[in-house]
Amino acid sequence: MIYFFLGVIILAIIFAALRGILGPTAYDRVIALDNLTIIITAGLVVLAYFYQRYIYVDVSLIYAILSYIGVLTLARYFEGGL
Amino acid sequence: MNWVEILTVALCLLLIVAAIFAVYQKDLILAVIGTSAISVALSALYFILQAPDVALTEAAIGVALTTIIFVITIKKTKRYEE
Amino acid sequence: MVLEIIGYIFVTVGVLFLFLGALGIFRMPDVFSRLQAGTKATTLGGLGTIIGIGFLQPEWFWKLLIIAVFIAISNPISSHALARGSYKKGLRPYMKEGGIDAYAAVQEAEEEKE
Predict the structure, then answer these.
(1) What is the distance between the alpha carbons of residues B7 and C82, in angstroms, rounded to a whole number?
(2) How far apart, in whole angstroms, are the C-alpha atoms of residue B72 and residue B11?
(3) Looking at CA atoms only, how far is residue C31 from chain A in angstroms?
(4) What ipTM, to 2 d.p.?
(5) N or C terminus of chain B with fewer C-beta within 10 Å?
């Protein structure tokens, strides 16, 4: 059952990365980067359950706290502020 | 091959494509987005290779700090490379 | 045993929503549709996956709950900032004949007031 979860997460990573490569404007690539970060956050929790280690969850916690700062900075730059 | 090895191969392909994208790009904001994607894939690879402390440091630096410093630098200079 | 069944259901729904969000990013026609498909579906998918792992492994539940709360707060912030930035930069939503852009009237009124 855990292999089914990993396979679907691999497919999601592939589609998000394709939009990041093909996207016509810069906004599409930022959206793809945001989506990729959330998918990796959930995937690292599934991998921590796969390895059965409690300490591995901390990496996902750091992603959940800090991941919005980069996208917020890029969005403020596009708006013209900063 | 099991599913973890396939995930490793997919992340390595994403790393290589994002690195080539970041090097050959004339628009520097898109190069910053490519650098951030490199950081995400590299952190997940460190996690799979069972080094969670290195992955934690890479996540904290690569997602937030590098993006903010590069975007402020581009804001103070110019966006397109000749 | 009941907790395991509930956890597997939660993780399956969450992973499928993550996949549907990525597929929506790949298929949708313009920036705002991609933003909506990519952010809402992905927030629900991440919450479902993390809470489901918390049901499968009950000692980890509180730290996973903190992760879920941070995702539920921080993901709409970045989505809203990105939509506002791209609208202010001049992009308009893709619409067919007879579509209404309600935010344009609000913005014109604000500009006339200044």
Answers:
(1) 30
(2) 29
(3) 6
(4) 0.89
(5) C
